[in-house]
Description:
The protein is an alpha/beta fold. It is 40% helix and 16% strand. Strand 1, helix 1 (38-54) and strand 2 form a beta-alpha-beta unit.
Amino acid sequence: MTRAIDVQGIRIFAKTAPCAHSCRYCLVGQKKIVDVAFPRFVAIVERFIEWRSESGLSNFSILAGVEDSYEFSVEILKALFELQSKIGRNEGSDGIKLGGLKWRSESDMRTWLTERRDMANLKIVHASLAGCGSTHDRWNGREGDFEFLFQTMRTAAEIGLRVHQRLFVVRSTLPVLADLIDKLDEIPVKALRYLSTFVYQGLATRLEEERITEAMRDQLPACLGEISMRAGTQWLSEREWIGEYKDKIDADKPRKLRLDLEITDANIDQLEHMSCEEIVAGLTSKTAKTYAMFPSRSKLLKECADRSNRLIYASLRELEHKWFDRYLIKNPSHLAKDVGHFAA
């Protein structure tokens, strides 16, 4: 049995904003930056918003953004926030991620943040922290990156911005998590903190040796006791996921997904002359044909699951991605490795 799909919406994106450094756990993986003018990107997204309204598709989800960092002008940030509001998404309409920004002095960063607060209504900054000091710097590919993020979060708090912090819990960060929390507590604001594993996607698919085990999960440092896990996740081992969700895995329901519309230099002229219906129909057909080649979830469970694996995964979806990678190793000529929708 193969996989069917249930289209829930569309994700429209363009890789126009390069990161100033490369994280070893990056979800995006290899990147090719394009030179798509932001107004042209906005025009396509606004056409989809109008089409959704006119077609009565209120439940059709639209996501939109430029990747991979927020290293762009305040004018673009303001327009991006306004676009998110038009889409109807509160999440992402007033916050930025600090990862990937160019290094700036404390004074320059204060000016940079203040400008975005005053001109674009920036309210939240978000930092992902893989330990502290040299541990974080190694994972994020830039010497001094932890101190830059720490000072930026402190500056953000001082000018009235809210601070969100994602703390990665992997084997190499475990020894420094207590020091990390002590350091973060020096920032003069109560931050929203949550714990995260490395998501099995992009470059992080190569980092299985960093995953904590059931025993490590059950004996996490006391300093983490009051910090929640990332919303929507459960920290279960592969064997625990199978034990608790085997009936759901065996059900083989259609895969709910958003279509991916990546806007590039090569396709933007064509997209501007196509209707939204044509774009959605074409993406749906292409995605359905790809999924028709996929083995069913129950087949993956039967042939590729490791019922003895005690490594921790945060969602059934990323574990399914892991099974699919195992399937490709066993069947290298059956499917191309780069099947982006499967990991979406």
